[in-house]
Design goal:
single chain; alpha/beta; Adenylosuccinate Synthetase, Chain A, domain 3; Adenylosuccinate Synthetase, subunit A, domain 2; 2 domains; ten-stranded mixed sheet; four-stranded mixed sheet; 20 strands; binds guanosine-5'-diphosphate
Length: 430
Amino acid sequence: MVKAVVGANWGDEGKGKITDMLAEEADIIVRFQGGANAGHTIVNNYGKFALHTLPSGVFYGHTTSVIGNGVALNIPLLINEIKSITDRNVPMPKILVSERCQIVMPYHISFDQYEEERLGGKSFGSTKSGIAPFYSDKYAKIGFQVSELFAEKELKEKLVRVCETKNVLLEHLYHKPTMNPDELFETMMDYREKIAPYVCDVSAFLDQALKDGKTVLLEGQLGTLKDPDHGIYPMVTSSSTLAAYGAIGAGIPPYEIKQVITVCKAYSSAVGAGAFVSELFGDEADELRRRGGDGGEFGATTGRPRRVGWFDCVASKYGCRLQGTTDVAFTVLDVLGYLDEIPVCVGYEIDGEVTTDFPVTYKLEKAKPVFKKLPGWKCGTRGIRKYEELPENCRKYVEYIEEQIGYPITMVSNGPGREDIIYRESPLKK
Ligand code: GDP
């Protein structure tokens, strides 16, 4: 049985916490896309951790953590990440890396930086982790699979070819030092030594695991609105953030994915540039940012302050639809307890017309939010474990949003810890 945990919005919805929580009952947790450009924050018995490449199940002794072929693998960062958790007394996790996973090369990171510098004010707000150059090379068929580290002769030849084209750009477009294929080869041999203990045929491993009746969690990075096809192109990430891509990025049949848990935060937040219709500014934004998440809304990888706004029903309904949501996990609800009333974005006004359908980017840029104000509940809700025990206005908030987005909210998260979760029967659940 395969379950996917994915985001409905711009990322940072709390997928890490939900995955960590569901991992208790799972055997295998798979990262299937993205790279070390974003992070998941997890709070558990060992402390607070920001994970970038490792799946959020690494803290349990019983799980296997898998880096699927769809991931952008930064080998030194993965090794450091493993060390950073074992240094803090987490037992050495069982980790498998797909032999078909491609490697973030040192020059992908440099090219990411050089391109952002070149674009100046017109940049994409990249985290400069090399993700866009990595996926460009993957689809231009000049990327390197982990398996290629083990075929030295072919690797050497390919490095020479790749350096030829990259060096033209380095010299003439970016005016930066050129690369030497022999030095790159040495780096690759170092990468090989580091990654070799983990490499395997992940797809075959998962096939057997599914035959043996194991439970597999697919852990998505970012959310629907950052998907290169269905998101706010071009302010998107470079790999698909949708549950459907989980089948490809892990190497399993699509029909094995039986449950899609889409994580939605009780208000909105986004890192990086791009349209954000229900965005808040000024003091109201500062207050929500300061109170938000677990210790403020700041990026897990970059530390950048996140943009914040009210819950956006238009974006979330669309975000849930594209994921193929079977369950919504509604997170960080505890943070909203300070507000007298809580605006919710229920429509977009575009050229004088109101719509509840999420539009393409040029129309989205013109959209103005239509808000409905719901009464607040003015108290803390942490520690509550039963839905009926939440304040009435808090339940009304959840139920109003569920009705607007049209997907069943079956989990409500009211704190960062594993145990801070309320399961709920939804009228929308068939
Ligand atoms: P992800 O990328 O989707 O995993 O999200 P992040 O981990 O970047 O951001 C979510 C933040 O919210 C983290 O700091 C979590 O510890 C925190 N968090 C998750 N669920 C809850 C919740 O229900 N309440 C509160 N207060 N914080 C939460």
